[in-house]
Amino acid sequence: MRNNSKHRRGFTILELIIYIVIFGIIGTLGAAVFSFATKSKIYIGELTEVQLNETQALSRIVNQVHAATKINSAGAALSLAMSSSTNNPTVFSLSNGAILMQQGSGAAAAITPSSIIISNLSFTSITNPSPSTTSVQISITAGYNNNGVIDSNTTYTLRTTAVPL
Q1: Residues sharing a CB contact under 8 Å with residue 99, sequence separation 6 or more, in sequence order
Q2: Is residue 130 part of a domain?
Q3: pTM
Q4: How far is CA 4 from CA 9, 12, 14, in A?
Q5: ∠ at Cα 56 (76, 160), nearest 5°?
Q6: Residue 6 falls within a domain, yes or no?
Q7: Which domain holds residue 44?
Q8: Most buried residue, 85, 105, 149, 160, by most Cβ within 10 Å?
Q9: Regarding beta strands 149-162 and 98-103, do their DSSP bridges make them parallel or antiparallel, or are they unpaired?
């Protein structure tokens, strides 16, 4: 006698198609999440680098203003009178996306790395009532250097005021 009951083994073609579609959707979503996480990590790293280097440059300028005896001039560049003849004058300026510092007759040197581009550096002289000395407002705008172009998503501006002590 023949047994009419068939034991089914394996999957039907319809079940296989459904499983493939489900795993495809899960894989696509996983890849999208991974891509978003990777892009976010890169963006946060670039923005952190801009903020850190810009803060260090601003701190260096403020420290030099505090060490100065007076502010000679402020505008596109900042010239500070220093008590040491080797550092007099100390000048900060912007050139090719970098902040330069020149002390005395020495060569100007960049105080910002090439990984960021400084798009704006301005100094505004503020006359204070006597007996205070003149102070200077410093404004710096920078962004991440993306192959010679500022990445607009990483643009960051810092502004402070300093006075010679």
Answers
A1: 57, 61, 92, 93, 110, 111, 112, 118, 121, 140
A2: yes
A3: 0.77
A4: 15, 20, 24
A5: 55
A6: no
A7: 13-162
A8: 160
A9: unpaired
